[in-house]
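Could someone model calcium ion with this protein?
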Amino acid sequence: QELQLFYQPQININTGEVGGAEALLRWQHHELGFISPGLFIPIAESSDLILDISKWVLETACKQNESWMLSGFPELCVAVNLSGKQFQQDNLVEDIANIVGMTQLKPHQLELEITEGLLIEDVQKAINTLTNLHNLGFILALDDFGTGFSSLSYLKRFSLDFLKIDQSFVRGIPHDNDDVAITRSIIALAHSLQMNVIAEGVETIEQANYLENHGCDKLQGYYFSRPISAQDFTRFWEQKLEEY
Ligand code: C2E
Ligand code: CA
Ligand code: CA
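Reply:
Sure, complex below.
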């Protein structure tokens, strides 16, 4: 019982509203204190523990999202990170559909974040999995875009809804010419392939303004909020709603 999910708001650019949240794992160890997911997830991934953890993450995120919906908040899309081993599971699509089916959520209220690394292992299988998830109505986002082995020829076949610009590119905005060029190219590429773009790691108002002016669809980062507990997220959201 030491795991917890935190939620980081994602802001819709055209409305300024909270349009989504990324669920991020936190482990508060009773002796060692806080352990970063960047540290313990790769270890869990090397055993089957990651499968139990991943299932718990999906269930917890969906139940939380349902509970926000039932308490009267506007519709929210919660994004969950998929692990490699989880993605390889033959019953992945069925499991996800079952978990969402136990709630009153609509499929488009769950977003699945995958990294390029997950897709290159068995491309045909990945295409099938993503097509099935897409056909069921789930939202698909390609995380850390531009840092892996981006195969542009496959991009279109993966049924993706969002490209997520990696924070390493966002960091250099608006001063680093290379990061600016890469970011603008990603936005243009995504839009010309009928995908949306979300930027992560947005820490300053300059970055937020630049991304907004260049057509990014959603923003996420410390500038808006760090990942916070469900309780704090509720308060953050209530405050945002009062601003309108
Ligand atoms: P990620 O999916 O790329 O998540 C984004 C990371 O960037 C998060 O780190 C988040 O806290 C951090 N971040 C968000 N905004 C900013 C910002 O403005 N500036 C900076 N410098 N950082 C920002 P976190 O929570 O430590 O997670 C690290 C990684 O662990 C995640 O990277 C993801 O790969 C993995 N992870 C986290 N939760 C889960 C999970 O439930 N399942 C799986 N499979 N992986 C997870
Ligand atoms: Ca992510
Ligand atoms: Ca990321």
